[in-house]
């Protein structure tokens, strides 16, 4: 493009120079009294050369320039179409996501509720198992404590019965009864003594 501009400026400069020369020459010729008819042919020849030069430059330089500029414009249009198509695809994808967003949120809520219900059931079952273990342990402890209390009560009532029997026997026994018991015990010992000696 710079070359084309330089060429056009050069051609315009040459034209202006030739016009100035013609004007100066025509002024001299007018001063000398020559006719202006002779200059018309030169003017047309000069114009034809200038037009041919400009046409040659335009064909040589402007054709490739306009072709490259046209291809750049076409490429820009294609790029703009591609960008527009990509933007439309992204917008459609975002619209689809936004349309499905409510369904996705509802699905997440439903999943969270189901998981919470399952976790609640698991915790309830675990709690029931632990309570059953605690009840079983408590029943065993109560049964063991009850058995120990019964044994202790039997021992206590047995000791109490013995003490009561001893006190009753002491109250009812007179000294004559005591003497009779002692004599009977001694007699039993005397009888057992010779028998034991005879068996030896």
Offer a few descriptive terms.
200 residues, mainly alpha, 3 helices, 0% strand, rod-shaped
* Element pattern in H and E: HHH
Poorly predicted sequence stretches spanning 5 or more consecutive residues: none
Shape: rod-shaped
The amount of beta strand, in percent, is under 5%
Distance between the termini: 158 Å
How confident overall, as mean pLDDT? 78
C-alpha Rg, in Å?
70 Å
Task: Set down the secondary structure blueprint.
Elements: H1 2-32, H2 37-172, H3 175-199
Question: What do these coordinates show?
Answer:
The mean pLDDT is 78. The longest helix is centred in the middle third of the chain and has 136 residues, at 37-172. With 200 residues, the protein is mainly alpha-helical. It contains three helices and no strands. It has a domain at 2-124. Helices cover 96% and strands 0% of the residues.
Quick rundown:
This protein has helices spanning 2-32, 37-172, 175-199.
């Amino acid at each position: 493009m710079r070359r084309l501009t330089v060429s056009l400026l050069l051609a315009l400069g040459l034209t202006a120079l030739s016009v100035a020369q013609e004007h100066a020459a025509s002024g001299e010729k007018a001063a000398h009294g020559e006719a202006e008819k002779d200059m018309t042919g030169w003017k047309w020849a000069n114009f034809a050369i200038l037009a041919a030069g400009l046409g040659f430059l335009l064909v040589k330089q402007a054709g490739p320039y306009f072709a490259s500029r046209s291809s750049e414009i076409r490429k820009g249009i294609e790029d703009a179409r591609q960008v527009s198509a990509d933007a439309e695809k992204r917008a459609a994808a975002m619209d689809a996501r936004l349309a499905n967003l409510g369904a996705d949120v509802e699905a997440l809520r439903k999943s969270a509720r189901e998981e919470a219900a399952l976790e609640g059931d698991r915790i309830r079952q675990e709690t029931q198992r632990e309570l059953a273990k605690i009840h079983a342990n408590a029943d065993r402890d109560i049964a063991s404590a009850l058995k120990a209390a019964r044994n202790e009560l039997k021992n206590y009532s047995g000791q109490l019965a013995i003490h009561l029997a001893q006190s009753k026997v002491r109250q009812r026994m007179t000294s004559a009864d005591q003497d009779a018991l002692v004599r009977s015990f001694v007699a039993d010992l005397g009888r057992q003594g010779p028998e034991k000696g005879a068996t030896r």
